Structures are given as C-alpha cells and as structure tokens.
C-alpha cells in the first residue's frame, strides 16, 4: 500500500499475522523492501511484519526537500508508517544503514509503540570526532563519484567491496536480480542519503541509548570483523543489549543466512514475552 507522508507516497506492506510483536524491517543503502524477500520467507507463519521503502527507494517517491533524507526526516517516515498500521508493539529491525536509522529512532524515542530493536551489521555512530570527520569526507567523495560516473559504475564498485563477500556466494540468478535492483536507484537520491544521513554526519547515539530501557539484539557475522567489533563495543552501552554472532556470516546476514538470522530474532521476541 502507499501512505501519503508530507506530500509524497511511501510504499509499505503490513503482513498482519496476529503476533504480539510486529517486526518493522528497514533496508540498507541503495536497497529496498524487496531485499528482505528471503528473510520474510523464513519467518514463522504467525509472525507479523512491516516492510517499508524509504523515500526515493523501491516504489516510494523521492522528496524534493532535502529534509526527507536526514535522520529526523527518515525517522518521521518510519514512525508515520508504524502509526498508520495501528501497531501496539513494534520491534524495529534494520540492516546496515537501516540499522543506523533504527538506532536513531530508538535513541530519540520517535515511536511510542516500540518495545525493542534488532540491529544487523551496523553502528550507532562513530564516537571519535576525528574518525567521524574522516568518514564524512569519504561520504562526500562517494557522492561525487556517483554523480561523475553514474549508477552502473557505482553498483559494480559497491558489490566488489569486501563487505559483500557473502553475497558473492549467492546463486547467480539471485545476484542478477539483486544487481538489477541496485541499477534502478536514482543517483541523486543516493547522493542525498550519503550527504544527509551518512555515517559521517551521524551524531553518535550512544549517550542517548545509554539512558533507555529498550532491549536490543545486535547481530554480526563472524567474518565481518569491522562490524563485529562495533557491535561488541555497543553492548557495553546498555545492559539490555545482547550481541550474537552468526558463524561463517559476512555483512548481509539476512540474505546470506536468513534462517539463522530469523531464528535469533524469533528467540529474542519470545524473550520479550
């Protein structure tokens, strides 16, 4: 269905199966709700979930106002969708850039119905200012590269990153479709995500998260050393956070190992009961 939000259509899908907690699935940079297809197929038949295409992604319209692409603007989009679905207990689940948005929404308490969160291969922000500035400059360069060379060059470069080593082991037909979806991105939209909600401009959310009583499940792949280390450090922020590592997994765990990822999340939801 399409939800009108501040003048643009936001695509979302609510699979209401009667479960107590509703998973709100938020895709990563350059992705869309379709990326969750293997994950949702592995969910129990009675688990409810919401899929969202963020502005300018998938079937959602892009906003001309740059504020749509800030953390505040994106958080408002997700909050509006959850409210429109009438959810009583939501558990936000985000991958990579979507996970950063989950941390932001949680830290700023934007969704009244939020009970907990799941963060897959992600970060709540870079705490060291010098490192954050270095990343900000890197995001600017990344955006400039997209503008100069176009989407196809970006997609080829993006999918060659070590982060996506696990994806390279997926069946060829799956990867053909996955790459095709990357090529459907609007270069201007990708640039705006990098400039307005990239890791480099994200204020570290750890100080706010430390004060909240919202349980969190952090999931990492054993081969994704960078984000495994980040998640391990984030568990020190709040005693209600638990970190689980999927053996043999890389960055895109919800695609590479959907059954294992789903099991961890369902076990976590059962603990909330």
What does this entry look like structurally?
This protein has 273 residues and is of the alpha/beta class. It is built from eleven helices and eight strands. The chain has helices spanning 37-42, 71-84, 97-107, 129-149, 151-159, 172-183, 187-197, 206-209, 225-234, 253-256, 258-272; strands at residues 2-5, 8-15, 22-26, 49-52, 90-95, 114-120, 216-221, 241-246. It is globular and about 50 Å long. It starts with a strand and ends with a helix. The model has no long low-confidence stretch (mean pLDDT 97).
CATH H-level superfamily title: Alpha/Beta hydrolase fold, catalytic domain
Largest sheet: 8 strands, mixed
Find the structural class using helix and strand composition.
alpha/beta
Mean pLDDT: 97
Helix content: 40-55%
Briefly note the CATH topology name.
Rossmann fold
CATH architecture: 3-Layer(aba) Sandwich
Instruction: Determine and state the CATH class.
Output: Alpha Beta
Provide the number of structural domains: 1
Give the overall shape: globular
Features:
alpha/beta, 8-stranded mixed β-sheet, 43% helix, Rossmann fold
Give the helix/strand layout.
Elements (H helix, E strand, L loop, with lengths): L1 E4 L2 E8 L6 E5 L10 H6 L6 E4 L18 H14 L5 E6 L1 H11 L6 E7 L8 H21 L1 H9 L12 H12 L3 H11 L8 H4 L6 E6 L3 H10 L6 E6 L6 H4 L1 H15 L1
Parallel strand pairs: 3-4, 3-5, 5-6, 6-7, 7-8
Antiparallel strand pairs: 1-2, 2-4
Helix pairs in contact: 2-3, 4-5, 4-7
